[in-house]
Hints:
- By secondary structure, the protein is an alpha/beta fold.
- The chain has a single domain (6-197, 234-267, 305-321, 342-359), classed as Rossmann fold (3-Layer(aba) Sandwich), CATH 3.40.50.720.
- It has helices at 6-9, 22-34, 51-54, 72-82, 96-101, 103-122, 159-179, 207-216, 237-253, 273-284, 309-315, 323-338, 343-359; strands at residues 13-17, 37-42, 63-66, 86-89, 129-133, 187-193, 195-197, 221-224, 230-231, 233-235, 260-263, 271-272, 288-291.
- Helix 10 packs across helix 12.
- The longest helix has 21 residues, at 159-179.
- The protein is globular, with a radius of gyration of 19 Å.
- The site of nicotinamide-adenine-dinucleotide (NAD) has 25 residues, from helix 2, helix 6 and strand 7.
Amino acid sequence: MAFITPSFWKDRRVFLTGHTGFKGAWLSLWLAELGAKVSGFALAPVSEPNLFELAGIADLLSANVIADVRELNALRQAVHNAGPEIVIHMAAQPLVRESYADPIGTYATNVMGTAHLLEAIRSLETVRAVIVVTTDKCYENNEWVWGYREVDRLGGRDPYSNSKACAELVTASYRQSFFRNVPAAPAIATARAGNVIGGGDWSEDRLIPDILRGCFGPSAEVILRNPVAVRPWQHVLEPLGGYLLLAEHLVNNGALNDDAWNFGPHEGEERPVLEVANAVVESMGIGKVIIRKDPDAPHEATLLRLDCSKARARLGWAPTFRFQETIAFTTAWYAAWHKGEDMANFTRDQIRIFTWSSLNR
Length: 361
Ligand SMILES: NC(=O)c1ccc[n+]([C@@H]2O[C@H](COP(=O)([O-])OP(=O)(O)OC[C@H]3O[C@@H](n4cnc5c(N)ncnc54)[C@H](O)[C@@H]3O)[C@@H](O)[C@H]2O)c1
């Protein structure tokens, strides 16, 4: 199986949106470890604590622009200042429940933010590869048992999922309208990852942060509202490694790879929410799982699997961890944070262990 090429990333200029978020902070740290020159563009972190600050990401960046993807001019200015070779677009409103509360804001950020990013790079000659990060939820969910493939129909019932399907369509339109058969145009791909877990996430309404808040809370109760929902859980470093490998392929092979890519866990590693919660509680050694269904909860799909045959066959990508390793890695991070360890070093060490495990799997 292939893994990323460190020499490819040394001194590469990368423009990363969403670098203050959960995935963005991990990716910024990983890219800094590889010696890349990262310019970040995002809003300020919202949670307290947050990985961006805990890991001292701002000090590792070539540029740290705190601004809004809904502002085309700000985005254009930042990306032109950075002059990147690789662009990874992760800035988004990524929460299903928040998308029900603020559908307009979600569409503005996720759809127009993507259009602005693609518009901003149209006139930039340095860019060779663009990855637009969407989600496994961009597929029309049929509640079927098979994994969704990249050719399956886009959809999404809630505004978040739907906005990401729209971002897929915007990207496809820009690719075909403005970047195909244009000399020196960048290759543009979309990446659809599964449900990502790992240390350093404190988002509202996400399973692992909710479980940890429960475990560390006064009653140690972990309340589950949708215990049967099955999701393709994976450690955050899994799709990030996929994005890096994909970017290398885009630079090396151009238009051969410029379409959509799924990055999910090993087949059969999808798990219901209840099993994840029990595994986390057991691994942490604290907490008590309580099921309290919310009859007024907005709709969320029950069954979601991803077929990653394409990334395996054409990129040589494969997940590294099995479910239990993913849980152990995640809980080790939160336990270390709870003990007050230096989380910049701890997170760096996890990246090194993951890299070693990937090379030796
Ligand atoms: N976490 C998951 O399970 C998961 C799964 C699949 C896909 N994704 C996608 O991965 C990406 C990153 O997700 P995450 O989990 O790190 O989310 P996050 O909420 O932790 O981070 C979101 C990032 O986007 C930035 N952002 C939000 N609105 C913005 C705006 N208007 N202008 C500029 N920046 C803005 C935030 O500042 C932050 O840096 C998103 O595109 C998300 O849809 C996440």
